[in-house]
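The aim of this short unit is practical: by the end, you should be able to scan a pair of folded records and say something sensible about each. We start with the first protein, listed as its amino acid sequence and then its structure tokens.
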Amino acid sequence: MRDRHRRRHSLSDKAMRPRTSPPMGQSREGRERGQGLLLGRRSNRCSTFKSPWRCKSACVNLHLTLTNANVFAMGGARTIAEWVEAQQASGRYVFTREDAEAGLGGSKVAVQTALRRLKQKGRIASPRRGFYVVVPPEYRVAGCPPASWFIDDLMMHLGLHYYVGVLSAAALHGAGHQQPMMFQVIADRATRPMQAGRVRIEVHTSRTVKAMPVTRVETETGTMVVATPETTAFDLVRFFSAAGYWNNVAMVLSELAENIDRDRLVDIAPHVHLPDVQRLGYLLSVIGEGELAEPLASWLAGRRTTIVRLRTDLPKGDADLDPRWRLFPNEQVDIDL
């Protein structure tokens, strides 16, 4: 009886042991090959676990973890694309990286990776790091919608007081026979130029941004701050190189003159340097706008002015002094009226 009981106990132990024979329809070599693919080698053992079964279980868990991570990353990218579509559908064309992270609730790395992929596909543009613009289908070739769509939000994102100025402002007021190559902005602090697709933004610095008269202009997506015609006239002189130098400045002034108010022009004079007032008055006289120039001459008469040159980077040469404006016109100004 004892021998029979021992044989039954031994058979029961064998039944409880892990199966070492290959499954039905699969050879031992095939089973080992399958374990080798899972474990990364042909052997069914690894250095971490002595038991091949514990090793197999751990590797399966690791495989599932990595797979879930990949699926999550792919799902996050699709979610961001849908989130961007929702922004556009609601009429919002700009957002920050923080907006995307807060809206999706994913990790920063996953959100940044998905945003980078959308940018590579041309779905969004980024004129400055962390700031994104949704690109509608009609602007995919250009790579970005016009700067007027997002300039106000971009300047707010950078913490800058600004207004659209120089040739860009002149074009908005109907002056300038062609659109400027760059979108020109005047800001209270220096910042490097920005570009997104074919859109380039040029920022000039001025300490008088807050004092200069401006107006709010409606855009396709909201509003933006634009220099008044009087402010634009002074900015054309102050940033004459950005405006295409004096011949082009005179041309734009001649087209802008009908929108300039002479009294408002004098109101701005105290906020700019006296030489700029002298240069603007001289140019207005050259283009035949004496009525606009007269109040500036009267304003200058009560102040101590110095003799200046039209172009400070050139010698006065043989130019005769203009006594009214106390200015040497050391560059000939030619315009086609």
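Turning to the second protein, read its sequence before its tokens, just as you did above.
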Amino acid sequence: MIKTTRTTLNYLTGILTTIIFVFPEVIRAQSEEVAEIVTDSLFRVDRINALIFVVVFCSAILLYTKWAKAGKPLFLRKIPGLDAVEEAVGRATEMGRPVLFIPGIAELDEIETIAGVSILGRVAKITAQYDTPLMVPVRYPLVLAAGQEVVEQAYIEAGKQDSYDKDSVRYVAGEQFSFTATVNGYMMRERPATNIYMGAFFAESLLLAETGNAAGSIQIAGTARPEQLPFFIAACDYTLMGEELYAASAYLSREPIMTGGLKGQDFVKMLIIVAIIIGVLLATFDVGEWYIHLFEEV
């Protein structure tokens, strides 16, 4: 009887000990895990620097867009190649020759192609106003559809819908050098007064630019491919380099939303440059450990 009572007491003591000392630790650990999961799922404190960057970036774009819509003059650096577009189209009009526009040779999912097609809309509006023939050879079907839509819209906005020729934007060839040979043949036969290359170009860049130069055309090129820029600089009258290509649409149209976006991006770039300079100076004097940590999780 005594043994049974003692065993029962030991059993109850073990249960009480477990309840008093073990369960709280388990519950506490589980609570910490749950809290950690909830914390991770709701808000990551270690990424607050990314949040600040996004807020500053969006605020800058919205603020500059608001200023542009309000009519506040926003400074845009002169880009000679874009200033020469209207003059080049006017030259083609005077000579009675077409304008050749090539929006690169890449697919429509390339940002350079999108920029080229956007610039095509601005050029098409000028050719519509001057009643100048426009020729746009493309390499891919999606670029063909986008190009036709953009050119047609430009003619409608210029009030020259009857002058729009759907065949002005045409599919030429799907292979790189077949496309190049066809366009070069067109240059030598039709002798366009103005050649405009805007988009992604590769090994064919020098072939196109040299043929256009031999045909006596005024040439304006733009690409974000650094390895192709030397060829365009050597053979063209004007060359847009790097981000000038992406700024071209806002520069030509002066639309508030596009201009505001461009100025907002420039403002954020300046902040990044200043941050880099500060970081370099602090790291040079070996006092910038805290500053570096601010950007580690971005």
